[in-house]
Design goal:
By secondary structure, the protein is an alpha/beta fold. It has a single domain, classed as Rossmann fold, CATH 3.40.50. The protein starts with a strand and ends in an 8-residue tail after the last helix. The structure holds adenosine-5'-diphosphate (ADP) and adenosine monophosphate. Adenosine-5'-diphosphate binds next to helix 1, strand 6 and helix 9. Adenosine monophosphate binds next to helix 2 and helix 3.
């Protein structure tokens, strides 16, 4: 399955991506995780991306598209993938269509939209904590680790992302409305968009997602 997750920052894409990718049996590709890994390794790509990420702006399309093109050409992604955080602009979506057509004569099967209102998104982003070693996502109130600041899964240190500070959150929501929300109409027009209510407990959202994706799985087609 070739699957894209869309929704505002804080909608739960990263949280759900892990479960859905495992369920569907495809690799999870998160552009935010790839950028953050490059920032912490101090690569040229990371240095370039950091100034945009710190402001809550999008990294320019040329840079992002090249990075995703290279990742999609890796062997594990040839038969299917779950994209989390890409595309985020209509030009990125158009280029993704081109990459799939050229590289594998294929196209996206489905775009899953996680629907959550802005108030909930702000609550989620303000309390988000991420494990420095395994990238697992926690929340101080909604999904707290057993010990403050320590990941239950691997004992890694939890940190608050710089772009989860109030001023940056506000900018990211504006950037979403202006640059990413038009993708909803773009994909609806292609007949591949499915939306689910992404409020309520994480497990309930996962079940809704799996249910919504069932018609698109190979076994059902
Ligand atoms: P995104 O990848 O869309 O930016 P995340 O998956 O990182 O969003 O989730 C943002 C925050 O919200 C995290 O702290 C996560 O633990 C929390 N979260 C995710 N899903 C839910 C949910 N269904 N209910 C409450 N909190 C959630
Ligand atoms: P995320 O982890 O998805 O919230 O992404 C964190 C940040 O990485 C974003 O605010 C952007 O600065 C950058 N980023 C991630 N994905 C993209 C993308 N597809 N296009 C441009 N910038 C991106």
């Amino acid at each position: 399955m070739r699957l894209v997750l869309v929704g505002p920052p804080g909608a739960g894409k990263g949280t759900q991506a892990q479960f859905i990718a495992e369920h569907v049996g495809v690799p999870k590709i998160s552009t935010g995780d790839i950028f953050r890994a490059n920032v912490s390794e101090g690569t040229p790509l990371g240095l370039e991306a950091k100034e945009y990420m710190d402001r809550g702006d999008l990294v320019p399309d040329e840079v992002t598209i090249d990075m995703v093109r290279n990742r999609l050409l890796e062997k594990d992604a040839v038969g299917g993938f779950l994209l989390d955080g890409f595309p985020r602009t209509v030009p990125q979506a158009e280029t993704l269509d081109d990459i799939l057509r050229e590289s594998a004569d294929s196209k996206l099967d489905v775009v899953l939209e996680l629907v959550v209102d802005n108030e909930e998104v702000v609550r989620r982003l303000s309390g988000r904590r991420t494990c420095r070693t395994c990238n697992h996502i926690w929340h101080v109130d909604f999904d707290p680790p057993q010990q403050d600041g320590i990941c239950d899964l691997d004992g890694g240190e939890l940190f608050q992302r710089d772009d989860d500070k109030p001023a940056t959150i506000e900018n990211r929501l504006e950037v979403y409305d202006e640059q990413t929300a038009p993708l909803i109409a773009y994909y609806a027009g292609r007949g591949v968009l499915v939306g689910i209510d992404a409020t309520g407990p994480v497990d309930d959202v996962t079940l809704r997602a799996i249910d919504a994706l069932r018609p698109y799985s190979a076994a059902e087609r």
